[in-house]
Amino acid sequence: MPTFKLDGKTIPFEAGDSIIRAAEKAGVEIPHYCYHAGLSSPANCRMCLVEILPAANQRAMMLDIVEWDEKLGDYKAVRKPKLQPSCQFMATEGQEVLAETSTHVIEARAGVQEFLLLNHPVDCPICDQAGECKLQDYWLEHQKTPKRMHDEPVHKPKAVSFGDTIVYDAERCVMCTRCIRFMDEVAKDPVLDMRERGNLKEVIVAPGRKLEGHYTLMTEHVCPVGALTSKDFRFKARVWFLKTAKTVCQGCATGCNAHFDYDPRSNKALRYRPRDNEAVNKYWMCDEGMLSYRDVTSNRVPGALVGGKPVKLDRALEDAKKRFGSVQKSSIAFVLSAKHSLEDNLALFELAELCASRALYVTGAPDGYSDDILIHADKNSNTAGVKNLAPEAKSFADLLADASAGKVTHVIALGGAAPTEEVTALGRLEGLVTIAAHEGPITGAAHVVLPAAAWIESSGTFVNAKGMRQLAEKGTEPLGASEPGWKLVGKLAVAIGVEPSWTTLKDVRSMLVATSVPPPEPPSAEASAE
Fold this sequence. Notes:
The protein has 530 residues and is α+β, with helices and mostly antiparallel strands. The protein has helices at 19-25, 103-117, 134-142, 178-185, 217-222, 287-290, 313-324, 342-354, 383-389, 396-404, 441-445, 485-495, 505-513; strands spanning 3-6, 9-12, 49-52, 62-69, 74-81, 84-85, 96-98, 160-161, 166-168, 192-195, 202-205, 228-230, 243-248, 257-263, 268-274, 305-306, 309-310, 333-337, 360-363, 410-414, 431-436, 448-451, 460-463, 469-472. It has 13 helices and 24 strands. The longest helix has 15 residues, at 103-117. The two termini are 36 Å apart. Mean pLDDT is 93; it is low at 522-530.
């Protein structure tokens, strides 16, 4: 692989990489505002300027400038190298680049930073971006000088609603144009643009339009300062109080990698953010996925239910024992869930094996909207994983047909979701136990419901539509009396008279290694396990 030198450090690069992109891959940050790896590079912020040393038999590109001389008490003519934007300058073999070691670059960065802050409001205490703001970070790293302009700053529109999801503060905007380029290049809806010139510039929405669609929240995510804020997260929390779990979005079969932010003091889920993975979701997430963090507490099954009434877990297991204890174990049907983790499904699959039952079915949420950007029609996060685990499993429609025909009388199911609301056939069953985190058609028909932990409350493995196996970390603590699904399957097994072959998550994952599920992707495509 070809390489170049950056401040004396060898940086490998691929054909077509810019200097800043190659440095980013090597874990070296060149400060920037307008650059984003997933977008075009306009080089308009000038924060990423670097000095390119001339190669052999090549003259340096120099500029004639005037510089104040303290001794002369006057300006004098000097020459300095012409700095280049590293977001547009391509890396080449043997190239030598100076960034942190160039006095010219250091002065340029400080100057750019000072210009950006001339009219910027000092409202960090009330800004949602505080703690994550590049203006704050780069002031400390590359400026550290007090504001020299004491004139009244230029005032611009504040708290402008761009649509149902985004609020714009023009005074904070550094005109990096990331939001404009995202809507144009990724979302394919060029609804944002700029107007005016110089320090009067501001971002606007096209006349007669509003910022809408399935990717509007990404404009806030790519904003490096506090100009664009999400109406959902606005004024909710300070980021330094939050903890983050690396997880996988549950919205559809794409399996976007995500950061799940929550407040450990209140055990409250607060937001989803994309986690970069070029093989899965690149740098993006859809609005529906980013707002799906709300599902942690929405329509939850917080405790055990018998006949729809809340009971203690022991009481629910006792009722399950009465319904299943005297039944021929091989006649019990088992329903896997495409919305639950592989660990939960494997535990139920293993229970079916221990019961010598071959009556396997699979359920999940119905299909929905899709596009050619990220959103998959399959609204289940683990369809591929369940198919690999139990390729012989029949559909939910087959379960309803078999229940109507009396071929199935006792069912143990995972999850409450179903592709249809018409589940009256389940009412004919003599015994239906479901282990579910969320309410759904199956929980409504079940005789016994055991409260499972949501995906973020227990570490789990999910296989996306591309067949990529991804691990998701545990974040918040389980709600109410809920427990990991694989653990509840084990307790249910004991209740119906079967000795489970697992007691810990490690046991379940040991069994998972022996299955035909695809091996894990490289570390960049998965989060660490619990």
